[in-house]
Specification:
Length: 181
Amino acid sequence: SNALLEANTAELRADFPDYASQTWIERAPAIAQVEEQTSASLGIIVGIVMLALVFGIINTMLMAVLERVHELGMLMAVGMTRRRVFAMIMLETFMLSLMGAPFGILIGTGLITYLGRVGIDFSAQADALEQFGFDAIFYPSLNPEDMITVAVAIMITALVGSIFPARRAVKLKPVEALRHV
């Protein structure tokens, strides 16, 4: 992080006042700008993926609700409150995402570990990469904090995406739902 970088540079400057100490950002502002633009681009890509995820979850949970109109009508007819129906759909979504998270983490960890060993070859762009001090082979690494953040973000996104189908289930009229086959 930049705070750690600044702290280490300040410590070096204090320990060795006769020598010049610069952060990589001070030394190569063009690379810092590329890193900043890359982070912004990555944020946009993650946003698009999360938006696609929301629509996928809405579609999946809406189909789950529409397939069970009769059952939901039966539950409401025997006294299940609309609040409980809403909570049931939300809980189902949460449980599905909770069960899916370990599989996603396992697959992602395996892929990143494999690519971290063999690397991703960007030889076609080697000249451009070398101008910025990058190697033509990229070795991705895994940050456990990022994995947890993404898993939690996906679970929250799943819950947000299931609000519409849950509201649709709540709006069912028990008598009409019981006629649905």
